[in-house]
Structure formats: structure tokens, C-alpha cells
Write a structure and sequence with these properties.
By secondary structure, the chain is mostly helical. It contains 14 helices and two strands.
């Protein structure tokens, strides 16, 4: 395939796919806590459990992708099916008002959506002649899609309503239909037996014999626990303390992510893996401290800095971690190793974090009274100091225990 064909024909379709893929996620995920709290009156513990459905989907997704998409059907057809069904589920979720029912509905949606993350990557890579240069140009449209979703929801002022779920459902149906026109991507494991070990990347467990890699995996798992506090409750927090257009303001985090993604190579060469990971962890500690001591009036700048730190929080930790895994794992299992880390972080770590964050917010929510009306008062300062201390402890332990071999090359 020529570069010009990729640019003119395939590029536009892949860019639209990535835009919609992350527009869907950004449209409902960020503001779900605000909707469940203000719109439906859910308790914080119930909100945490609702959010845990998404990482549970990340735990289950490898089985779907490995047993179905990789073996029997073209990726774009599976993508179409998953998004059409997912869109219908989101429409249904927008009508649910019972906590227990909503968890299972969101879990069903997560099982549909999570496999499409790897499918969209597979469809992209399958048509690229130079992935190192071409994929970032495609993937950036995903971040733009997330930003567009946040700006739209903020502009419409519907964060406490079910409208974001409806918008995401409509976008999911649109992407499902559009997927039928994506470049054909045949199943990569056609005719081959795919094992559970392959799907979960369990061959990577052999690398755990290396002390530094084991520390990295354990640290990645643990740091995702305090991370979940931001993903699950930041929008609800900003709305609760009176920040105007919180969903729109939170897109500053994705904007900073774009900037730091561009300048990351400059820092990576000079700092190395360990310092990059530590800076990423430290950024989470600083972010939570800023949230704890800021205010919606004279100290609102602390909230904004906390949001803008997202570029460092995400790129310096997650992207650096992916590079570390790629350089550490033998070439034969590099793809499995990336899947294993995703399973550990976005799956197991976020499941624990989602449930713990809900319980912590529940613990620091007390009954108050305003003008004789009894209402729930959330002690946000104590809440944000909790993940700050957890992340700080993990940062210190990781700094002491993790040893970087900067001479190690990819095997």
C-alpha cells in the first residue's frame, strides 16, 4: 500500500473510527458519578460499584477478543456488532434507576466496549506501512474525540442527567454502522488454537522472576488503586464544590496529555524509566493534595493545575510503563506482556480502586443540615488526602525497591 493511499483513503476512516471510539467513552464515563449522585441519589458506595463494572469488563475482554475476534471473524465485523449492541445497552442504561440493576447493565456494556479498544488498534495496524510514525497520527484523534465529548457535555449542561448516556449510545450505534466500512481485517489466529495463557499473557509471569519487573508489576497494580479516585469521583467533586462547566474544564487534562506525549521522548532519554515512573506517581500525589486544599473561588487555580497534571500522570506512568515492558519482554511475547500489564492495571487494579474509592467517599459522607433541611455533606478534603497518602507510600516503596537496568535492550 502506498503512503498516499494510506493518507487519502484509509487514514480518514481510521481517524473517524478513533474519534468516535473515544468520544463514546468520554461522553458518559467522566460524568457518570455526577449523574448517579445528583440525578439518581445514589450513595458513594453504589457509585464506586457502578464504576467497577468498567474494569471488570477489562478483565473479561481478553477472552472475548481471544476466543472470537482473533479466531473466527474479521475485526471490523466484530467491532460493528459490539458497538451496535453496546449502543442499545447504553440507551437502556439511561433508563435504569436501581443501583444493583445498573451494575449488571454497565458490566454487559463493558464486555462489549473493552474488546473494541484492541480491535480498533488491530484494524489500524493492519493497514499501516510505518506504524511508528502513522499510529500516533491516528491515535491522537481518539484524544480529540474525548475532548470533544467533554466540551459538548459541558456546553449542554447535562452532567447530572442521563443525556450523556444517550449521546454515547447514539455515537456507539453510529460507529457500529461505520465499522462495516472500515478496511477489512481478517482474524489473525485463524486456524490456530488460542489458549487462556495466550489471551491473558500468562507467559509474562516468567518475567516475574526478574526482581525489577516483579516490582514494576506490583507497583503498577497498587498505583491504579488511588488512580481510580480521580477517574470515578473528580467530576462529581468539581460539580459539588461549585466549579462551572466541570466536564469542559476536565478536558484540559486530555489537552495536556497531547502536549506531554509530544515532549515525552525528550524527557525519556534524559531521565530513564525509573525517574519517569516516579515523576508520574508524584504527579498523582500532588494532584490529590491540590484537590484537597483548593477551592472554587480564590484557589480554583489549584483545581486547574490538578487537572492539567493529567498529562504527566498518564504519559509518564502508563506510556513509560508500556515502553519498559516492550524493552524487557522477549520479542516473542511482547504483545502478550502488554496484554498482561493492561489486565493487571486497567482490570484488577481499577476494580479494587473503584470499590475502595466508593467506600472511602461513603465513609467521609456525613449528614448535615442547611436551613433545617437534612442533606449529605461530603468531606472532600479527607477523601482526596486518602489516595494522596496511598500514592505517596507506593512512590516511596517503588523508589527504594525498583532498580533500573538502563543497559538492558529488547530481547
Amino acid at each position: 500500500m502506498s503512503e498516499s493511499r494510506m493518507t487519502v483513503s484509509v487514514f480518514s476512516r481510521l481517524a473517524i473510527m478513533m474519534f468516535l471510539q473515544f468520544f463514546i467513552w468520554g461522553a458518559w464515563y467522566v460524568t457518570l458519578g455526577t449523574y448517579l449522585s445528583q440525578g439518581l441519589g445514589f450513595e458513594p458506595g453504589q457509585i464506586g460499584r457502578a464504576y467497577s463494572a468498567i474494569p471488570w469488563g477489562a478483565v473479561i475482554a481478553p477472552f472475548i477478543a481471544g476466543m472470537i475476534a482473533d479466531r473466527f471473524f474479521a475485526a471490523q465485523k466484530v467491532m460493528a456488532f459490539m458497538h451496535i449492541v453496546g449502543g442499545a445497552i447504553l440507551f437502556y442504561a439511561s433508563t435504569i434507576t436501581q443501583s444493583a440493576v445498573l451494575f449488571w447493565i454497565l458490566l454487559a456494556y463493558a464486555i462489549c466496549y473493552n474488546p473494541t479498544l484492541s480491535l480498533s488498534n488491530a484494524i489500524s495496524f493492519n493497514k499501516m506501512t510505518n506504524p511508528e510514525k502513522q499510529f500516533p497520527r491516528i491515535r491522537v484523534f481518539g484524544t480529540i474525540g474525548w475532548i470533544a465529548a467533554g466540551l459538548l457535555i459541558g456546553f449542554l449542561k447535562v452532567e447530572a442527567q442521563n443525556i450523556p448516556l444517550v449521546i454515547a449510545g447514539g455515537a456507539s450505534l453510529l460507529l457500529g454502522l461505520f465499522s462495516l466500512f472500515l478496511p477489512p481485517t481478517p482474524p489473525k489466529s485463524l486456524g490456530h488454537k488460542v489458549t487462556i495463557s495466550d489471551m491473558l499473557g500468562l507467559e509474562t509471569l516468567k518475567l516475574m522472576k526478574q526482581r525489577s519487573f516483579a516490582i514494576f508489576v506490583i507497583g503498577s497494580l497498587l498505583i491504579c488503586i488511588p488512580l481510580a479516585f480521580y477517574y470515578n469521583f473528580a467530576n462529581m467533586f468539581l460539580n459539588d464544590v461549585g466549579v462551572v462547566n466541570a466536564a469542559g474544564k476536565m478536558t484540559m487534562g486530555q489537552m495536556s496529555e497531547l502536549i506531554f506525549m509530544i515532549i515525552m521522548p525528550f524527557f525519556f532519554v534524559r531521565l530513564g524509566v525509573k525517574k519517569m515512573l516516579l515523576i508520574g506517581m508524584l504527579a498523582w500525589v500532588i494532584r490529590y493534595v491540590l484537590f484537597a486544599f483548593g477551592s472554587a473561588d480564590s484557589l480554583v487555580w489549584m483545581y486547574y493545575i490538578g487537572i492539567l497534571l493529567h498529562g504527566i500522570c498518564y504519559d509518564f506512568f502508563f506510556v513509560t510503563g508500556q515502553i519498559y515492558v516492550d524493552n524487557t519482554a522477549p520479542k516473542a511475547i511482547q504483545a502478550q506482556a502488554q496484554g498482561f500489564i493492561a489486565f493487571i492495571t486497567y482490570g484488577v487494579g481499577m476494580v479494587i480502586g473503584a470499590n475502595l474509592s466508593g467506600e472511602v467517599v461513603q465513609h467521609f459522607t456525613v449528614a448535615g443540615s442547611t436551613a433545617g433541611v437534612v442533606e449529605q455533606v461530603i468531606c472532600w478534603q479527607k477523601i482526596w488526602l486518602t489516595p494522596a497518602m496511598i500514592a505517596g507510600a507506593i512512590l516511596i516503596l517503588f523508589a527504594i525497591l525498583f532498580k533500573e537496568d538502563r543497559s538492558a535492550d529488547a530481547n
